[in-house]
């Protein structure tokens, strides 16, 4: 299956990347992006390998790394993974 970011998820990812670049460095931002891309590749290979969210039974939660979580759903009709949101786990965001 192929994964894609919704407009909202793309915006959230760019906000996280901008934050990392401004508060840390471009190297940190790029490292985070590499981790996210690797996690998305794994997600594409094992889309059912992540738990369902309790309150939304057709939404799944994928921990991208210790600082970010992706929420997604699988569209069986199109065989696509729609990444709905990328949430930072930082408390100081």
- CATH topology name, in short, is YaeB-like fold
Any idea what the radius of gyration is? 13 Å
Q: Helix content range of the residues, please?
A: 25-40%
Strand content: 35-45%
List keywords for this structure.
93 residues; alpha+beta; YaeB-like fold; 2 helices; 5 strands; 40% helix; 35% strand
Describe this structure in words.
The chain is α+β, with helices and mostly antiparallel strands. It has one domain (2-88): 2-Layer Sandwich (YaeB-like fold), CATH 3.30.2310. The protein contains two helices and five strands, in the order βααββββ. It has helices spanning 7-23, 26-45, and strands at 2-5, 52-53, 56-65, 68-75, 80-88. A five-stranded mixed beta sheet has the order 1-5-4-3-2. A hairpin with a 4-residue loop joins β4 and β5. The model has no long low-confidence stretch (mean pLDDT 92).
Short structural description:
The protein is of the alpha+beta class and 93 residues long.
């Amino acid at each position: 299956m192929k994964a894609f970011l919704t407009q909202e998820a793309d915006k959230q990812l760019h906000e996280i990347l901008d934050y990392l670049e401004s508060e840390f460095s471009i190297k940190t931002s790029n490292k985070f992006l590499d981790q996210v891309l690797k996690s998305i590749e794994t997600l594409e290979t094992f889309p059912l390998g992540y738990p369902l969210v309790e309150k939304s039974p057709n939404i799944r939660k994928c921990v991208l790394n210790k600082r970010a979580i992706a929420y997604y759903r699988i569209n069986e009709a199109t065989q696509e993974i729609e990444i709905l949101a990328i949430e930072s786990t930082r408390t100081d965001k």
